[in-house]
Amino acid sequence: MASFVDRVILHLSAGNGGHGVASVHREKFKPLGGPDGGNGGRGGNIIFRVDPQITTLLEYHHGPHRTAPNGRPGEGGERNGAQGADLVLAVPDGTVLCTRDGEVLADMVGAGTEYVAAQGGRGGLGNKALASQRRKAPGFALKGVPGETREVVLELKVLADVALIGFPSAGKSSLVSVLSAARPKIADYPFTTLVPNLGVVTAGGERFTVADVPGLIPGASEGKGLGLRFLRHVERCHVLVHVIDCATLEPGRDPLSDLDAIEHELAEYVPDASLGGMPLAERVRMVVLNKADVPEARELAEMVKPDLEARGLEVHIISAVAHTGLKELTFALARAVAQARAEHIVIEPARTIVRPKAIDDSQFQIRRSETDEGVVFQVIGERPTRWVRQTDFANDEAVGYLAERLNRLGVEEELLKAGAVTGSTVLIGPEDDAVVFDWQPTISAGAELLGQRGTDIRLEDRHRPTRGEKRESFHGKMDAAAAARAELDKDRRAGVWTDPDDA
């Protein structure tokens, strides 16, 4: 079973918000105690946090589904529900969070770095919080909002100062084992190393880490062998060391051709610029000619060394088995790392910028579309969608409260401008999870006779009748009443009676 995993896909579900409760205070001799329903608790967030003690994503490979606790519902007696605990997921230093499309969400570098990957849902308000001067005893409460669900790709990119790269069986793992206390698996067959091995090296006052990158072959930048899987571990390394096997017996291979092949793959691989990575071909590079304990290999190494130095590369002839040339190599690596650290521009994590909404921002939009069933109007916006999810449609008072909120936001006015009429199909929310209404505008229920909501045209008439107008109106009513009594008296004298069955 694999003990090292550097890429996983996680399915995250943040906690749902708890429902608010509609409750009325009950106490002896106090029949009208008023509303006392509490609010629901917020759902738990899902947070990623860097833990230096973790070096692999193996735990998430076996458990890719993670769910945060839900918030508790409110209770009577003005008792609010408990908030759902945040789910903290520990990741190794150097983990990159991105979407399936490759969009980088966060670069987790540095112990304690955190990123909220999924927000918990809001808790619903109880009827105590919904009470107002106009609505003194609400008979409804708001539901909790579902937590955010999303897929996140975790990619581990090893943090090391020096990367040992080269063909399989070039002696990279052996070199790590003699330079540091690391004990990687070493064998005489290709692709023995299937995972990066890290070791800590001390040279004088300099301390740095060395990573043994699994063997590369021609076409690695296109996905051949283990190339694409492990080339990303080179992205964060400042110094690249070509480990070349001078004792290989494979036909068609020699130190110069091996170097050219690996250099080509490095040039073809493009690091993620959003993480501050510069092209691999522009980094400090060094060549190590290994297995000099073999006489033929030693002669070949001394032969090609001048050609490699002519290219501007620093060359070291060593033997990891015989421990020759290691001291000079160690201090050369320390100097290169110190120089690279001095020249390296530290990329600070992007700060969260809060951009408040404009005062005149409606925070929603109306989208009109033609379908087989007719014209459909879709209301898209975070606030209308949240309000709909919080509404208990089995409660008429709650539905009326939703209509008031949408009207205050200006949804009805915009629907009228878009051409909606009574009975039009209106969707609120995303297409895959929208609530469908047969729209009945509030101004079509006779309210237009009273003007816009919040106004009354009967109050706009400021004329005060004079005493003569009042007297004339009074005499007119009295004359009408006298005429009605005379008509009834005439019918009674004539013997005209109305049959109750004919009425």
Can you walk through the features of this model?
There is one protein chain. A six-stranded mixed beta sheet has the order 10-11-9-12-13-14, with helices on both faces. The protein has a five-stranded mixed beta sheet with strand order 3-1-8-5-6, with no helix packed on it. Strands 15-16-17-18 form a four-stranded mixed beta sheet. It has 503 residues and is an alpha/beta fold. A hairpin with a 2-residue loop joins strand 10 and strand 11. The chain starts with 6 loop residues before the first strand and ends in a 10-residue tail after the last helix. It is built from eleven helices and 18 strands. It folds into four domains: 156 residues, Distorted Sandwich (Spo0b-associated Gtp-binding Protein, Chain: A); 182 residues, 3-Layer(aba) Sandwich (Rossmann fold), CATH 3.40.50; 95 residues, 2-Layer Sandwich (GMP Synthetase, Chain A, domain 3), CATH 3.30.300.350; 36 residues. Keywords: Cytoplasm, GTP-binding, Hydrolase, Magnesium, Metal-binding, Nucleotide-binding. It comes from Ornithinimicrobium faecis. Belongs to the TRAFAC class OBG-HflX-like GTPase superfamily. OBG GTPase family. Its main location: cytoplasm.
Radius of gyration: 39 Å
Provide the number of structural domains: 4
Q: What is the CATH topology classification name of the largest domain?
A: Rossmann fold
**Beta-strand fraction estimate:** 15-25%
Structural class: alpha/beta
What's the architecture of the largest domain in CATH terms? 3-Layer(aba) Sandwich
Number of strands: 18
Low-confidence stretches: 189-194, 219-228, 349-354, 443-456
